[in-house]
TrEMBL record:
Protein name, entry field: Nucleoside-diphosphate-sugar epimerase
Domain of life assignment: Bacteria
Short name of any one Pfam family annotated for the protein: Epimerase
Coiled coil: none
UniProt-listed InterPro entries: Epimerase_deHydtase (IPR001509), NAD(P)-bd_dom_sf (IPR036291)
Classification lineage: Bacteria, Pseudomonadati, Pseudomonadota, Alphaproteobacteria, Rhodobacterales
Organism: Yoonia rosea
Domain spans labelled NAD-dependent epimerase/dehydratase: 5-200
Length: 294
C-alpha cells in the first residue's frame, strides 16, 4: 500500500514507518522536521489545511515522475503527528494543534477519496495519566467501553479527535480507526527504565501498569491497514503483560482496592485490555520487557 504517514519523525512514528516498510508498504512521511529514515518526506505544517491537502495530492519524490502516469494515489493515511503531551507548551496550544491537525488530515483524506484513515488516540483519554492527584479507573481491566472524561488539554484533544473521526466516517463511509495507544517503549528503553519500575511499581500507576513496544505498535498499524470494512472503530493498543514485576493480584491489592475487577486475570496480564484489537484486526504483540530483563 502507499501510505501517507504524519509524524513519522517522532518516537512512535519512526518505528512504525520502519515496520511498515519491512512489510512492503511505500510510506511518505509528512512532518515539520526530517526523520533521518530512508523514506520520502514532505516538510509541512499540518495545522495549515492548504498544505495538508496539497501534500496528499502532489508528487512526494523524484522516482514518482518516471512512470509518466500522473501523481500516484494513496491507499491510506496514518496520522501520528501531535504535540505529544501536556507541559511542553501551553495547554491551549496543545489542544489547538492536536485538534486542528487531525481535522485537516481527515478532511483532506476523505475529500481526496483515500479510503482509510488510522489515527493516534491515547491512553490518556481514560483520564488516569494526567489527573491532578490519583484518579483510579472505574473498573479494570480498562477496555474501550470505559468512560473517557479527561481533565487535561492533551487528553481532551484526543477525545475531540475521536469525535471528529466518527463524524467524518458517518458522512463518508470511509474506514477510520482510532488507536488508543498506551505508553510507547523503544527496545533500548527496557534496560534503561524498567529496573526502576521493578523497584517501584508505583512509577507505572499513571500508565495503568501497561506499555506498548514500538515494534508491536507498527504491527498494529499494519493489521489495521490490512483490515477493511470496519467503519469507525476505536482500539486499545498495548502489550499483553504488565510493565512491573509484581502480579496482577498484587497490583490490585496495592493500587486498585475498591475498583471492580471485571474478570479473572492472569498473573502477568495487562490492565489495559487489548482483546478487541486481537479479535477484530488480528493484533498479536510479540515483544516484552521480560526478553531483556528476564
Amino acid at each position: 500500500m502507499r501510505v501517507f504517514f504524519t509524524g513519522g519523525s517522532g518516537k512512535a512514528g519512526r518505528h512504525a514507518i520502519t515496520y511498515l516498510q519491512a512489510q512492503g508498504h511505500t510510506v511518505v512521511n509528512a512532518d515539520r522536521v526530517p526523520s533521518g529514515l530512508d523514506v520520502s518526506e514532505l516538510l509541512i505544517d499540518l495545522c495549515d489545511s492548504g498544505q495538508v491537502i496539497g501534500a496528499m495530492s502532489q508528487y512526494a519524490d523524484f522516482h514518482e515522475l518516471d512512470p509518466g502516469t500522473g501523481v500516484p494515489k494513496y491507499d491510506a493515511v496514518v496520522h501520528f503527528a501531535a504535540v505529544p503531551r501536556v507541559m511542553i507548551g501551553t495547554d491551549g496550544e496543545c489542544f489547538r494543534q492536536n485538534t486542528l491537525s487531525t481535522y485537516n488530515v481527515i478532511e483532506a483524506a476523505v475529500k481526496l477519496g483515500i479510503p482509510k484513515v488510522i489515527f493516534a488516540s491515547s491512553e490518556t483519554t481514560y483520564a488516569v495519566c494526567f489527573a491532578d492527584g490519583e484518579l483510579k479507573p472505574e473498573y479494570v481491566p480498562i477496555d474501550e467501553d470505559h468512560p473517557t472524561v479527561p481533565h487535561d488539554s492533551y487528553a481532551m484533544s484526543k477525545v475531540c479527535n475521536e469525535v471528529t473521526g466518527r463524524s467524518f466516517q458517518a458522512r463518508t463511509g470511509s474506514d477510520i480507526y482510532a488507536l488508543r495507544i498506551n505508553n510507547v517503549i523503544e527496545p533500548h528503553e527496557y534496560a534503561e527504565q524498567f529496573p526502576a519500575y521493578m523497584d517501584d511499581p508505583a512509577l507505572r500507576r499513571r500508565n495503568i501498569f501497561a506499555y506498548i513496544d514500538a515494534r508491536d505498535l507498527g504491527h498494529m498499524v499494519d493489521c489495521c491497514l490490512k483490515t477493511d470494512g470496519l467503519g469507525y472503530e476505536v482500539f486499545n493498543v498495548s502489550n499483553d503483560d504488565l510493565s512491573v514485576g509484581i502480579t496482577s493480584d498484587e497490583v490490585i491489592e496495592r493500587f486498585y482496592q475498591g475498583v471492580p475487577v471485571m474478570r479473572d486475570m492472569r498473573p502477568d496480564e495487562t490492565f489495559y485490555a487489548n482483546d478487541k484489537a486481537k479479535r477484530m484486526v488480528g493484533f498479536a504483540p510479540k515483544h516484552s520487557w521480560r526478553e531483556v530483563l528476564g
